[in-house]
Amino acid sequence: MAQTTRRRALGLAAALSAGLAASQTATTAQAAGPGRGPRPLLRAHAHNDYEHPRPLLDALDHRFNSVEADIYLVDGDLLVAHDPVGLDPSRTLESLYLAPLAARVREHHGSVYGGRRVPLQLLVDIKTEGEAAYRELDRQLRRHRGLFTRYAHGRVQPGPVTVVVSGDRAARAPMEAQRTRSAFYDGRLADLGTSAPSSFVPLISDNWTGLFTWQGAGPMPATERDELRRIVAAAHAAGQRVRFWATPDVAGPERDAVWGELTAAGVDHLNSDDLAGLQAFLEAHER
């Protein structure tokens, strides 16, 4: 019931924002160069992307360059849902993400956003036992030859889509053991300064509320701002990107203040369920 209510609410929100479609179309046209698709918003990460009325497609319409799908291994397939009550055999990772991405890349001659060679990030959050789920994920990714960034023979070979595996930590061991793979690993702050290379851990993610007390009201404490910038600098020095989950996501000045500090610190991905809200913020702040 909770899942159905949330989907209904998201559908209503999409309907209410339909009036913005014309202005978004104009903005998209302005963001695209001659013979090129729209310019992706590199910092925009669609958290719980699958809960939008049109998974993946709504995020792409808002020019997001990173989307997140939670997966469960059920009867040998990977189903996409936020929690077990929402599982639906028709909502598979293949049908919602892998096949549509493959079709879009074919249509756009080798990229997600036509003529733009920056890979789209697909963050796959494993909600069941990690090793078994990853092995099935690996099998499914290998069916789409040429679609994904790969690690092979000690080198990263860029592709139109880069899959990063998050969630259950048991996925790490089988991934590290592979000499070739079509996915990468989502690290935590504990991975900063370790021997884990960016060719295995290109992304560092962690819980904002577990690290910072500030939620956007008033100025950010100087000690917390310094710590945020230290984290980003350390990750970037190692060739890794940074993302925080559980940042404020209710529209208003507090959320904008947090997003502003994240942007100023160089955080690579801003986490949101509000596609239109984050798009508007980034378009106003990344000119």
Brief write-up:
By secondary structure, the chain is α/β, with parallel strands linked by helices. It has 10 helices and 12 strands. A hairpin with a 2-residue loop joins strand 5 and strand 6.
What does this protein look like?
This protein is an alpha/beta fold and about 290 residues long. About 40% of the residues lie in helices and about 20% in strands. It has helices at about 1-15, 20-30, 55-60, 95-105, 130-140, 170-175, 210, 220-235, 255-265, 275-285, and strands at about 40-45, 65-75, 75-80, 120-125, 150, 155, 160-165, 180, 185, 205, 240-245, 270. Strands 1, 2, 3, 4, 7, 9, 10, 11 and 12 form a 9-stranded mixed beta sheet that branches. Strands 6-5-8 form a 3-stranded antiparallel beta sheet, with no helix packed on it. Helix 3 links the parallel strand 1 (about 40-45) and strand 2 (about 65-75). The radius of gyration is 18 Å and the shape is globular.
Q: Please outline the major beta sheet.
A: 9 strands, mixed
Span between N and C termini? Answer: 42 Å
Beta-strand proportion: 15-25%
Rg from Cα? 18 Å
- Count of separate DSSP helical elements: 10
The unreliable regions are: 1-30
How do the SSEs run, as a string of H and E?
HHEHEEHEHEEEHEEEHHEHEH
Strand tally, please? 12
> Shape from CA axes?
globular
What is the arithmetic mean of pLDDT?
Answer: 90
Secondary structural class: alpha/beta
Helix content: 25-40%
